[in-house]
Each structure stands twice: as C-alpha cells, then as structure tokens.
Design a protein that fits this description.
The chain is mainly α. The protein has two helices and no strands. It has helices spanning 8-36, 45-62.
Length: 63
C-alpha cells in the first residue's frame, strides 16, 4: 500500500463510509423486523371518538 493512502482525509472517509453502511444496515434490519410483523390494523373506533370529542372542546374554548 502507498503511504499517501493513510493520510487523515482517507482515514476519515473510511470511518464515515463504515458508519454510513452500519446505519444503513441497522435501518434495513429495523424495517425488515417491523414489516415482518404483518399488516398494520387501524385503531379501534372508540379511540377515534375520544380524539374528536377532545378536539371539539378546544374549539368551543376558542370561541
């Protein structure tokens, strides 16, 4: 190997590339694990009714 290959800029570039590849692989594993669980189901209707009632109380307070 050439001595010029091991200067600070090349070492920093190699470390940055390694971190980037590592973050990409962790993200890929996380997406794969979340996707493996199956399709997402919507929340129950009871949860949506409470959100609508909660938001209406703010609208009445503003008027």
């Amino acid at each position: 190997m050439n001595k010029d290959f091991f200067n600070k800029k090349n070492i920093l570039a190699l470390i940055t590339a390694f971190i980037s590849i590592l973050v990409g692989l962790i993200y890929l594993a996380l997406v794969f694990a979340l996707d493996f669980r199956g399709p997402m189901s919507p929340p129950p209707s009871e949860a949506l009714i409470s959100v609508v009632a909660f938001s209406n109380s703010f609208q009445l307070a503003d008027q």
